[in-house]
Amino acid sequence: MGAVAGPKASCSVRHAHQPHAPQPPADLPPSPPTKAPVCPAPPAPAKVEGTAAGRPDGTSLPAPAPLRDGAEAAAKERRHAHACPIREKRLRDLKGVRALVQGLRSIDDSPVSIAFLGKSVKWRRSEMGDLQRFLQRFNSLFVRSGAASQEVALSDAAPEAFETLVQHLEKRTVAEGKRLTQAQQDRLIVERMVSYFPLSNEVHVSHLEWSSYGPTLGRLQPFLNAFPDIFDTSEYPKVYLRPGSERFIQDPNLSRRPVAPTPTSKLPPPKRAFLTAHADALAVIPKFVDVSVPGLNLTGIGAAMQDLLRRHLPTISGFVCRERFRKKVEDVLNRALQQHQMASPCGEEQEEKFRCKVWMFGSSSTGLFEVNSDVDLLVTPVAHMRCPQEWLDAASEVERLHVLKDRLMESGLGPLGVVESARVPIVKPSEALPGEMNFDICLRSFGALNSQYLRRVFQKDGLVRDTALYLKHFAKDKGIINSQGGLLSAYSLNIMVVYFFHCYRGFVLPALSEVTSPEVVQPPSEQELTIGTAPEELAQAVLELLQFYTMQFNPQLDCISIDGRSQEELTELKQKAYLCVADPYERYFNLGAKIDAARWKLIVVTFYRHLLELMGERPP
Where are the transmembrane segments (predicted)? Predict the structure, then answer.
């Protein structure tokens, strides 16, 4: 089982943006440089003789190998770039301008489509932002033409403008690379934000490209609220530039104002209770963590993860118990239903007796089940068989579930109850049944299709399965798998794992069309009963996934989708929800609809703390 191959491709599906507000022109020539103090470098980790910081299980990691010549300078450069996010943005601008100019020159400066140019220079949207907006920002270099301005070429003044712009960006990059105080960084960012209001005092937040400034700044709205004399966020996500804001921007004492938090007494009781219970976690602001630092003992971290997985791998005996219970429920239902009056749906007498089919889905199908986990069952009548009259008389899904409940209880399986208020109504035991497995019964087939598709994904690459299994047990241990409490479900977490591998690591997904109807669940294969990935591959994948959702994923702009649907469909699906996790088969269902900003912050902070623990650092 090898690691997923391929570059870290960016196929993150983003929201359809509001109509484009006027974009800022190319950067103006720099003002006379001022002597600025240097930005404090991140504190170096404490050195421990012989070993690095220990892992949560108490074992210690070997000391990192000394950096080679030049590696220390490169590491310091990376830390500076993330410590000064405005400089990081400038470095990306410089890289993008050079790549696009070189790409256009290589095709004789003739107009080409923007899509072709992006492919030829391998434009990464997650890193560089939207290509069309980038071309519009540097309109002194690039001229757009053709239908809907979808073709681009170098302008006549490109040679001189390119040299001037590169020198300007390099000077600004060097100046911003020095040690800046917090106030100086804020001034640079405020000036950059104001430059997005060239012709209008109104801009949608999606045009401010806030995510490209790095995760160290926190969320955009609190940052704008800290400058109330300049920005008006009363109609957020629309942002207005206040009249007379120029004098505040030029004020040498420009600094953030403390923003009063929302009084929790005015919030509804459930929301107030959640904020109070998780106040410590919600106060944490995740900072950038580089998971590619030299000397990190990936083998040791991965070995600890594999030890955890070996205790939770599926077993043949566990599957046999589940299959035996499924068969028992199927036999009990068929015997009970056949004892009642039969009637043909089409009015014709048939010789066949009615029978239903019971299918397993959920963790029993994906192969992520444990000994004590529930058995999810789907009941479907065989289409060509006669149905009992009471089944035909049931006008709704809930009434048919009551029929199933009554027949099962008559056969001695109970006590049972029907959960009518759930989004998908189910039959489940109203109390623990001695000697029986805990189970749920439903009548909708979407769960079976989803589970079968996830198993195909996991069978295609064991690294995806091992990562999903590790994240599932970690999330359960930390309490963030709790769909009834407005947090993640195990299924939505699996979708997040598959989305990460597909969009960030180039994993090719099976076609959704391969699964169209419920199938009999097969026993776990030998591959599914063992861990086939190398420890360092598993550790690297988990660290990158935690870093992705902590530092890079923006729920206000990105939607988690693995079915390739369009931006318009995702925008319609998300509506006013904070997080969008699209169900690949139930296309009008958002798995993340109940997760608000505070709950997503709790999930992110939980990921962030575990990331620090794995890297041997002390979490906040």
Answer: none
Q: What single-letter amino acid sits at 229?
A: D
Helix (H, G, I), strand (E, B) or coil at 497: helix
DSSP state, residue 54: P
Q: Which of 411, 431, 446 delimits the end of a domain?
A: 446
Q: Is residue 289 part of a domain?
A: no
- The residue among 143, 163, 198 that closes a domain is 198
Residues 29, 172 within the same domain: yes
Residue 549 is given by DSSP the state I
The letter for the amino acid at 168 is: H
Q: Provide the 8-state DSSP code for 481.
A: B
Residue identified by tokens 């509804």 is 268
The 3-state DSSP class for residue 402 equals helix
Closest listed residue to residue 73, CA positions, set 296, 298, 294: 294
Q: Which domain holds residue 125?
A: 21-39+84-198
pTM over 0.90: no
Helices 269-277 and 597-614, interaxial angle, to 10°? 20
DSSP 504-567: HS-PPPPPGGG--S--PPPPPPTTTTS--S-HHHHHHHHHHHHHIIIII--TTTEEB-SS---H
Distance CA(497)–CA(516), nearest Å, equals 23
d(CA 444, CA 408): 19
Q: Confirm whether 307 is domain-assigned.
A: no
**3-state class of 417 per DSSP?**
strand
pLDDT digits (tens, 9 = 90+) for 26-52: 444 444 444 444 444 444 444 444 444
> Under a CB-based contact definition with an 8 Å cutoff, are residues 104 and 111 in contact?
no
Shared-domain flag, residues 31 and 177: yes
Domain harbouring 92, CATH code: 1.10.10
Which CATH number characterizes residue 343's domain?
Answer: 3.30.460.10
Bridge partners (DSSP) listed for residue 154: 142
What span, in angstroms and rounded, lies between the C-alpha atoms of 289 and 266? 36
Residue range 356-401, pLDDT digits in tens: 899 999 999 998 988 788 899 999 877 545 566 666 666 678 888 9
Place of tokens 């609809």: 593
Answer yes or no: is 179 within a domain: yes
